[in-house]
Design brief:
Distance between the termini: 39 Å
Structural class: mainly beta
Mean pLDDT: 77
Low-confidence stretches: 1-44, 86-94, 153-158, 163-171, 200-207, 520-524, 764-810
Number of helices: 8
Number of domains: 5
Largest sheet: 6 strands, mixed
Helix content: under 10%
Radius of gyration: 34 Å
Shape: elongated
Number of strands: 50
């Protein structure tokens, strides 16, 4: 443990030196080793076991309490291991340890928590002799639990009086635990001001900023910034003597002020010992500072606004890169005991807070509600089901129940490089960007239950899989979105712990034609599809009682119901489905609720009631239109115009490689020619806001070479253009036929008018009072964003086409590899790979102090997370390691 201190003469160490002297003499290999160092300031240690931070659980859960004698030397541990193997052989000199665990006080109803049979036992931890017991309660309340350990001695060659004294039962240890079981509140469901129809979204710069309004999502863009973030917050309440009923986490500071204790009698303000976490605010990355960092942290990229004199002493971020976090311990707040810099945690810190696992101790120097160690609650998010989905097509009229629910990745959300309105930081291909100071507000993963941690000393919430009830969904081998194998109890926030198969939709065809040339473009169907994906999922809340999930609008909707209720959509003899006439551009709606569940077993009174409903509206960006721009400004050039056809789908992605045929209905096709820029003809590649490069002339797909129409194939931006000439001052009417659906658009060009203003239904206009730089669409009955919007959708390494998205496939590489010397004295190799694979094989060269390779090994390592390779032996002769990826 952190800063463990030596106990007095009646402690376990003193007794063991007397009682097992003969055994120590038989193990000469340990004889020359020094004892553990003495802490120079007894009682002011940051050891979280020297205070009484409560264990918290939901009623119906089990709590395992653990106490370890964590000040043993290697010699003492070797003797104990031998004693456990001998199981009471006479040479040990111990008649057996006695362990009592009792509930001293209980503030709730009934008789209080019960100790489960068979759970009271001694065991050996990593460097400690430990005792534990597991309690359960179906009622809410606070318990004081006393653990007392004693020992009897015999077969020791001492004088009568001395022997009589040693034979007596001596108290080795006593420890008082606080354990609270809570009632669960109804979840508070809100939508974070991120993603969705936000004006700062890269994928949607024309957004209205309305949090409950979304544009359709391209299913081929899983990194879309359009997804919204729903957050459920769960609180707990319990009766506490002298305080009435308290609600956590808000009451945590008051709770600490009344109940906190400290082993140090000089600490007159022990409540600050319950400072175990940092801030949970999603905007807290603006706080920066590491007053005792020294060489462990790099210079912050953000303004430093944390000082020793301030209420917050440390930002608790990954200040050195990777996933090791800074922390500062302040025993009594702004008091007489000076703060202590604890250094960095171990890499890839995994919660929840456990006083027996020092890497979970993440204080920032202030006591707030964020310090309450809230237990994981299960939250089920649900999109209300479409009422008509199983009815015959002609009877379908309900357009609700659209979209799906996806994982919100806490690494990406709590990234300092996340833009203010974005739903994630970093890039899609590197969502766990762990550059220095980028990650904050850990934990990013936790063991559920807490005793699922691999350490034998693990304490906290405890449980096994249910038999006639569900139990914990983590570690149930049924998989989740982030852990398909689900072989351990580690839960990555906020993985989908369970998809409810009965509420997961598979897309099926509707009668709304998208485009009839899709077969050769490798799309599964030409028809638009119904919604798909999980519409009910379960996740677990983090240590602050918060659980998030993403809402993905998707590209599937109940188009049959739309056509049944809006006949104007289906007015095309060619079979087309013209969404220009969609009322208010609304494709569908989603009503979303959250239900909190007790995570382990059913309890009297049942689960809490559900949350209020959040109503979402999904709108279409479908647009097919003709825009007209002058060829130039001189008098002669008034006789020519460039007509641009633009086509984009409901999600704003362009209809690429679609054939558009132009015809002059006034004068046949006289004066109409393709406008195809090339490097050789030097024609302008951009007309107004439209990039028209990359188009090509094609035969009329309906009339082949006998047609009088001029036909072109749109480019990757959904654009194609023709030049129209007229010298008589007549008004010319141009029709554009988007042949894949038979959708027609026309535009009248007044050549006799002296004005050369563009005719562009998709040109952006500025709304009075709108934020500078934020464009809003001119929408005369049809949402038609400018080309700027369409190109923004294709930003980065993504090339959008109507069929699929192409991405470069980056090779797997080593982000870092470090030899870590832990606080417990062990050494291990910490490695992190980046790339898109799930795992990769690495070659590890262990380097000696002479710079030569001592040994080479290979291991298979997970990609995208920090991995501690404890199965790579690092002897005292190993100085460093070289790591290279074998199968990239």
């Amino acid at each position: 443990m952190l800063g463990a201190r030596r106990r007095g003469p009646l402690g376990l160490v003193a007794l063991l030196f007397v009682g097992i002297a003969c055994l120590l003499a038989s193990t000469p290999s340990w004889a020359g080793q020094a004892a553990s160092p003495v802490n120079p300031t007894p009682g002011s240690s940051p050891n979280p076991t020297s205070t009484n931070v409560p264990y918290l659980a939901w009623k119906g859960e089990n709590i395992r309490v653990v106490k370890c004698s964590d000040d043993l030397t290697d010699r003492e541990m070797a003797a104990l291991r031998s004693a456990f193997r001998e199981q009471g052989a006479p040479a040990i000199g111990l008649t057996g340890l006695s362990l009592s665990i009792v509930v001293e006080d209980w503030s709730g109803a009934g008789s209080g928590p019960r100790l489960l049979d068979g759970t009271r036992e001694f065991f050996l931890g990593n460097r400690a002799l430990c005792a534990r017991g597991t309690f359960t309660s179906t009622q809410a309340g606070l318990a004081r639990i006393k653990m007392a350990v004693g020992v009897g001695t015999w077969n020791i060659d001492l004088t009568g009086d001395e022997r009589a004294a040693l034979v007596m039962k001596l108290a080795l240890l006593q420890h008082q635990f606080l354990a609270g079981w809570m009632n669960m509140s109804d979840p508070q469901l809100t939508e974070l001001p991120l993603g969705g129809d936000g004006p700062n979204s890269v994928g949607n710069p024309l957004g209205s900023g309305m949090l409950n309004t979304f544009f359709a999502d391209n299913v081929y863009r899983p990194d879309s910034g359009n997804q919204g973030v729903l957050q459920a917050k769960v609180t707990g309440s319990m009766p506490v003597d002298g305080m009435g009923t308290i609600t956590l986490p808000d009451a945590w500071p008051a709770f600490a002020a009344k109940f906190a204790t400290d082993a140090n009698p000089n600490n007159e303000n022990p409540s600050n010992r319950w400072d175990i976490h940092d801030q949970s605010d999603i905007g807290s990355f603006a706080t920066e500072g590491h007053p005792f960092a020294g060489v462990n942290c790099t210079t912050p990229a953000r303004p430093v606004n944390v000082t020793v004199a301030g209420p917050i002493l440390d930002a608790v971020d990954n200040c050195a890169g990777g996933q090791a976090f800074s922390r500062v311990f302040d025993a009594d707040g702004p008091g007489a005991i000076a703060p202590v810099w604890l250094g960095l945690t171990a890499e890839d810190t995994v919660g929840p807070f456990d006083p027996q696992r020092d890497e979970t101790f993440l204080p920032d120097g202030q006591l707030t509600a964020d310090d309450a160690p809230m237990p994981a609650a299960r939250v089920d998010f649900t999109i209300a089901q479409n009422k008509d989905m199983l009815k015959p097509i002609a009877d379908q009229k309900d357009t609700g129940g659209v979209g799906s629910l996806r994982k919100t990745d806490k690494h990406s959300l709590y990234s300092a490089d996340r833009a203010a309105n974005a739903n994630a930081g970093s890039s899609y291909l590197n969502p766990h960007n762990d550059d220095p100071h980028n990650l904050y507000a850990p934990f990013y993963s936790a063991y559920i239950p807490a005793t699922g941690a691999p350490e034998a000393e693990a304490s906290g919430t405890d449980g096994l899989p249910g038999n006639d009830f569900t139990g914990y969904l983590v570690g149930d081998r049924q998989g989740g979105e982030g852990d398909t194998a689900d072989r351990d109890f580690r839960y990555d926030y906020w993985d989908i712990a369970h998809e409810f198969t009965g509420r997961t939709l598979n897309a099926v065809e509707t009668q709304c034609l998208r485009r009839n040339d899709e077969a050769r473009l490798e799309r599964l169907t030409a028809m638009r599809q119904t919604p798909e994906g999980a519409q009910k999922v379960a996740i677990y809340t983090d240590e602050h009682g918060v659980g998030d999930v993403n809402f993905e609008p998707g590209s599937g909707f109940w188009f049959n119901a739309l056509m049944n209720t809006q006949p104007g959509l289906d007015n095309n003899a060619n079979g087309g489905c013209d969404l220009k006439y969609l009322k208010d551009n609304v494709l569908g709606t989603a009503d979303i609720t959250a239900d909190a569940r007790y995570p382990n077993q059913p309890v009297n009174g049942g689960d809490p009631a559900g949350s209020a409903t959040i109503h979402k509206t999904v709108k279409s960006l479908f647009a097919k239109y003709l825009a007209v721009y002058p060829k130039g400004s001189t008098p002669d050039l008034r006789n020519a115009r460039i007509v641009v056809a633009h086509a984009q789908d409901i999600d704003g992605s362009p209809f690429a490689r679609e054939v558009v045929c132009f015809v002059n209905t006034t004068k046949g096709n006289d004066g109409v020619t393709p406008f195809i820029p090339t490097d050789q003809n030097h024609k302008a590649k951009v007309i107004g806001p439209y990039d028209v490069s990359g188009t090509s002339a094609v035969d009329d797909p309906d009339n082949l070479r006998n047609s009088q129409r001029i036909c072109l194939r749109t480019n990757d931006y959904g654009n194609a253009a023709v030049e129209v000439q007229e010298s008589q001052g007549n008004e010319i009417n141009i029709i554009g036929d988007f042949t894949a659906e038979g959708i027609l658009r026309d535009v009248k060009i007044p050549f006799g008018s002296p004005s050369l203003d563009p005719i562009d239904p998709g040109a952006p206009t500025r709304t009075p009072g709108a934020t500078p730089g934020v464009l809003q669409a001119n929408t005369p009955g049809n949402t038609t964003p400018s080309q700027q919007t369409v190109r923004a959708l294709a930003a980065g390494n993504v090339q959008v086409s109507s069929s699929r998205v192409r991405r470069s496939a980056p090779r797997t590489s080593v982000r870092f590899a470090r030899v870590v010397n832990s606080a417990k004295g062990t050494r291990y190799l910490s490695v992190r790979l980046k790339g898109t694979k799930r795992t990769a094989t690495v070659r590890i060269q262990l380097m000696g102090y002479n710079g030569k390779v001592v040994r080479t090994v290979t291991r298979t390592v997970a990609v995208g997370r920090t991995v501690s390779l404890r199965n790579v032996r690092l002897g005292a002769n190993i100085r460093s390691a070289r790591v290279a990826v074998v199968n990239r």
